[in-house]
C-alpha cells in the first residue's frame, strides 16, 4: 500500500518534466500548465514546495546555463541543507559549476 495519504498530486514528476520542456521551447508557464493538464496556480504551488523544480523551470524559461544565479537559486540551495545531495548540486550550479547531480 502507498505510504502517502491524501489526494495524489496533480503535478507528477512526468508532468514536471514535460512542463520544463515546454517552457524551454518558449511557451508561457500558463500555456504549458494547460498543455500538461493542470493550472498555473498548481505550478506556482509546486515551485514553492520544490526548490529544485523552481530552479529547473526558471533555468528553462531563461534560456539555459548562461544566466546568472538568482536569489531563489541561492535560497533553494541553502534551504536544502549541506548534507543533501541536491542542495550541494544547486550550490555548485549557483556558484558557476555545471555538473549534474
TrEMBL record:
Resolvase HTH domain: residues covered: 6-44
Signal peptide (residue range): none
Any one GO molecular function term: DNA strand exchange activity
One Pfam family hit: HTH_7
Spans annotated as Disordered: 57-79
SUPFAM superfamilies membership: Homeodomain-like
Name of the protein described by the UniProt record: Helix-turn-helix domain of resolvase
Amino acid at each position: 500500500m502507498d505510504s502517502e495519504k491524501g489526494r495524489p498530486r496533480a503535478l507528477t514528476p512526468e508532468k514536471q518534466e514535460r512542463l520544463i520542456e515546454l517552457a524551454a521551447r518558449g511557451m508561457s508557464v500558463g500555456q504549458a500548465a494547460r498543455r500538461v493538464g493542470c493550472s498555473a496556480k498548481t505550478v506556482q504551488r509546486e515551485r514553492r514546495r520544490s526548490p529544485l523544480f523552481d530552479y529547473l523551470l526558471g533555468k528553462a524559461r531563461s534560456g539555459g546555463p548562461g544566466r546568472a544565479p538568482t536569489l531563489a537559486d541561492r535560497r533553494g540551495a541553502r534551504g536544502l541543507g549541506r548534507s543533501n545531495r541536491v542542495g550541494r548540486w544547486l550550490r555548485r550550479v549557483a556558484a558557476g559549476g555545471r555538473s549534474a547531480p
